[in-house]
Design a protein that fits this description.
Length: about 325
């Protein structure tokens, strides 16, 4: 639902919610937070007409999803952050304008992290900390929301490695590629956020945030852990993919070996049958009383001998037995 939410903290640290937007400029206000929650075009125009933010920053808010970044303006910072959207894992942009006595957030969709921090402020927690602490809270909550999707991916990978449900190989390979796609989406969100936090921590222009560096270092550590988890899971998916592709290739080789052996066994039998299928008048053994049975016996002996030789040399691998051995090895 489109709306503009306001939260005002007075100089007596009284928290006031949903006040008229014009009240934020009152001399009794210590600092304020205005949240553009799925704004309409008319509400978005207030970024220029009421707050007078820089046109380039406003353009970044209204256009397609930007890469996480930090821009410095005369009286405020402009920060682009990324949230993760539900099950799709697509990046959703959260824009912050952070000044000495205000923070303005802008997002085109409902963001759980923003709502959570907003409700926390409603309970009159952290009201004395100011806009930069709210900025820290928002970034921290956004990063915390990155963990559940990765933990879910790890659980799915563990199930695929064990394959307790005996799923077909092509189904497993399809799931592995889906997981790699999800990991790529997360990587495109987490790595730029990690770079952004590194810049925030090491920027000389953020003197007012020096006392909060420990907090931002903690978020940066979380992002490093997330990056490592992504790379580890990508390696695991590569190993699973290569293992199952090798297993599938091995099974195909066994099938081809079996078919080749069967074809080879029937080659001399077909040769013998072909000879006695010729319509020559003079073939003495055709008139022999036991000729038919002798030929059948010879063909049976040749077939059995060739089958025994192929089996002894491993040409008749039972695919089900190979699969069981593979499962036991894993």
């Amino acid at each position: 639902m489109a709306m503009i939410r306001t939260c005002v903290v007075t100089k007596e640290f009284e928290v006031m919610h949903d006040v008229d937007l014009a009240f934020v400029n009152s001399p009794d206000v210590s600092w304020y937070w205005v949240d553009f929650h799925e704004p309409t075009d008319e509400e978005s125009d207030l970024l220029a007409s009421f707050f007078r933010f820089h046109p380039l920053a406003i353009e970044d808010c209204l256009e397609y999803v930007q890469r996480p970044k930090l821009d410095f303006y005369d009286r405020y910072l402009f920060v682009v952050l990324h949230a993760i959207a539900g099950t799709t894992l697509e990046a959703e942009e959260v824009d912050l304008f952070v000044g000495q006595n205000f923070i303005v957030s802008f997002h085109k969709s409902s963001i759980h992290a923003v709502d959570d921090v907003w409700e926390r402020l409603k309970r009159e927690q952290d009201v004395q900390q100011g806009p930069f602490h709210v900025m820290y809270r928002l970034i921290d909550k956004l990063v915390d929301d990155y963990f559940p999707p990765l933990y879910n991916i790890e659980d799915v990978l563990n199930d695929l490695e064990e394959n307790t449900n005996n799923e077909p190989i092509h189904d497993i390979i399809e799931k592995v590629f889906d997981i790699r796609g999800d990991l790529s989406k997360l990587r495109r969100t987490i790595v730029p956020m990690r770079d952004l936090l590194y810049r925030i921590i090491h920027s000389d222009r953020l003197q007012r945030m020096k006392e909060r560096q420990l907090y931002f270092h903690d978020i940066y550590d979380h992002l490093l852990k997330l990056s490592e988890m992504i790379e580890t899971n990508r390696e695991i998916t590569s190993d699973i993919r290569d293992s199952y592709l090798s297993l599938n290739s091995n099974r195909m080789n066994n099938i081809m070996m079996t078919f080749t052996a069967i074809t080879t066994i029937f080659m001399p039998l077909t040769f013998i049958a072909g000879i006695y299928g010729m319509n020559f008048d003079y073939m003495p053994e055709l008139r022999w009383k036991y000729g038919y049975f002798a030929v059948l016996a010879i063909m049976a002996v040749i077939g059995i001998m060739m089958f025994a030789w192929f089996k002894r040399n491993g040409w008749f691998q039972l695919l089900k037995g190979d699969s069981s051995k593979e499962e036991r090895r894993r």
